[in-house]
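I am still learning, so would you mind making up any protein sequence you like and the tokens describing how it folds?
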Amino acid sequence: MCAHIVLAEDDAKQAELVRRYLERERHTVVVVGDGAVALDLVRRHPPDLLVLDVMLPGVDGLEICRTLRAESDLPVLMLTARSTEDDLLAGLDLGADDYVTKPFSPRELMARIRTLLRRAAPARPGSGAARVGSLTVDPVRHEVTVDGRAIDCTPGEFRLLELMAAQPDRVFTRGQLLEHLHGFDRFITQRAIDVHVMNLRKKIEARPRHPARLLTVYGVGYKLTAGADAP
């Protein structure tokens, strides 16, 4: 899969290394070293993927992610030298689809990028929409609706809903959901799933603090039900 990728990274040596690996995989790459310039660029010419360093001059990566998530579902992979769990969760909470900490293996980074690009690719024709009560997840159109109202989801949130809507009432452990989103990653913990669930509830539940659709099964994980639509 050849993609157009914007790499927002102000460390020239790091940017050159990543650019070479990306071009080896036949992607087209635009490197930007300033946060404000990067934000303007991806707004005017949306790429297939944004690889975004957190510590950028002008506008930092977290602010860029926050701004873009209010406007689009552009896939975002964040790079950072920060490695604490709170830093990782902050990025995911803002809607980043994946998070890689420095120093990283370029081969691992390329694998993460391939995974994100596959997930963002249009679904195959014939993939039907899944309905759970009045909630619909349509992988062909990449749309989520509740009571006919369109819901804006990040790619990660969409992936979770798509998985759970395909098997309503099945209880998924946090580990299973994390594996579905990120594969094995020692830096991303199961708390990341709780962040996604909290954000989804704000979007699909009438009363997020008292959910009726996306339910917690204490000691196990989460399940998606018809909720208030159930007979």
Helices lie at 12-24, 35-44, 61-69, 85-93, 106-120, 155-165, 174-182, 191-204.
